[in-house]
Amino acid sequence: MADITTDVLIIGTGPAGTATAALLSSYGVDNLIVNRYRWLANTPRAHITNQRCMEVLRDLGRDVEDEAYMFATGQDLMGENVFCVSLAGEELGRMKSWGTHPMSRAEHQLSSPCHMNDLPQTFMEPLLFKTACTRGTQARMSTEFLSFAQDDDGVTATCRDRLTGKDFTIRARYLVGADGANSLVAQQAGLPFEGRMGVGGSMNILFRADLSRHVAHRPSVLYWVMQPGADVGGIGMGLVRMVRPWNEWLIVWGYDIGQPAPVVDAAMATNVARQLVGDPELEIELLSANTWTVNNMFATNMQEGRVFIMGDAAHRHPPSNGLGSNTSIQDAFNLAWKLAMVVKGEASPTLLDSYSEERVPVARQIVTRANKSIGEFGPIFEALGMDGGVDHDKIQRNMDQRCDATPAAERQREALRKAIAFKKYEFDCHGVEMNQRYASGAAVTVGEPEPAYPQDAELHYAPTTWPGARLPHAWVYDRAGARHSTLDLTGRGRFTLLTGIGGEAWVAAAEAVGDALGINVRTHVIGPRRDYEDHGGEWAELREVTDAGCVLVRPDHHVAWRSAGLGADPAAELTRVLRAVLGR
Ligand code: FDA
């Protein structure tokens, strides 16, 4: 007999675990979360928060979304991605990033009701944790997960109370390993991985210092410092990252992974900060320093029976593109509604198979992209003449030569401009953030092939209602004239059917089928004098079905199925589709 019982046990209070807990509690599912430490993230690792991640927070409630914006640095202060020899020294170039280029900004605004922002992990985790606990999650801190055993009916986990040193057991129907890059859950579940850990070494130096005079005129999250000797390993050069404008900073500095990790003491941290800022007199208030490794690894299966892994437990990669926490929270959005419907008896456990089917391709994509982005600094080094060799004088001469009035220098300047512009694949990579399309039994197509991407799929989001894709965002208006995103009409733990004038039979069918299956399918008719009006014609432009057709949307905003027109027997069609998705 276990000491404690719950429906879902979550290991880890990082972005993945707290998001899962917040979503499960919002869906009314009993859950317990444990963390071996007494509190949440103590350093602001993740920070770039993308639109898709914000859509998950918005789904948790406008209060949650608004609180995130309240603590975040706004998009307008994120965008001048600077390359320089030091903050006080010469600027080598810059590019508009994170959706701040006017063309990119338009794409962002058209794609989502939410906007990108910079929310350090030290704010994101407490927000999600608070949301979870106030909605019902039981949290046990200073509690270390040790092992699990699973059987046909559930999972028994052994944990240690680190305050008393006593071990105890928790019995759960499902176990979620959101326990980070050294996941014990993944290891004990024997889940398979592709790739390698420890492909580079980096150190974080967190400090306070007012650097306004160097940065306020070119507001950015990231200042890349390229100077002879900075290319040690890890992410390849010095990075000065804004944590709070403009007096709290995180320096990321590489070390040679072939050597033991350095001990970063106050003297070393101050030296590194002085070198990268370019001010030999700079005084810093050192908050913390630690080392970490660059990884290139992902799970090719994220489920073993009743045990799931998510977040860094499943995909381990460098911070490039800012995808880690964002993807972790989206893993949670994918799994939580499925667990909820299975726990409540609304879906068969086979629905849970779609989690790994849908998220492994995302894990592969983001790990590959993040590691590729590191390599794409190469052309910048090359253009500056910083590639190869440790002859610092020679590197300095190469860098100086780009200022000459010679054809070679002109070519060098062009190469540098192009190399910096190419970094949009890291710093303005909207497609990777927004184009996640799923292929599994939980997205039912009627033989329609996946639509091609009209532009580069990594850089540009392509809206579609093709089953498996995220529902496109369009503004529609209620009868009082207030605007709502199509995403606001859906989600919050329920399936939603969207139709138009002439599609009322779908509404009746959804109610009847929902009653028969014991699930609540929300319905909305969009059209003149209906629940919502499409005054701008945005929805009509994007929906890819006729007025009398329908789009059935899953609780995680992804399209489950669509019908171009009314069809002969809407109730039979919806029954077939929902049974297929729910495995019933
Ligand atoms: P995470 O590692 O955050 O949490 C794991 C949890 O499990 C912790 O609570 C831990 O204590 C707990 N745990 C582990 N083992 C346990 C055990 N045995 N028992 C109990 N508890 C246990 N991402 C992003 O989206 N945007 C960004 O801009 C950046 N930037 C960035 C910069 C830097 C310098 C780094 C190092 C990383 C980033 N990231 C990022 C990545 C991001 O920090 C990372 O992907 C997420 O923290 C992963 O969240 P998880 O919840 O999966 O794991």
From TrEMBL:
Residues 6-370 form the FAD-binding domain. Pfam families: FAD_binding_3 (PF01494), Rng_hyd_C (PF21274). It comes from the Bacteria. Keywords: FAD, Flavoprotein. Gene3D superfamilies: 3.40.30.120, D-Amino Acid Oxidase, subunit A, domain 2, FAD/NAD(P)-binding domain. PANTHER family: FAD-BINDING DOMAIN-CONTAINING PROTEIN-RELATED, TRK SYSTEM POTASSIUM UPTAKE PROTEIN. This is FAD-dependent oxidoreductase. It comes from Shinella pollutisoli.
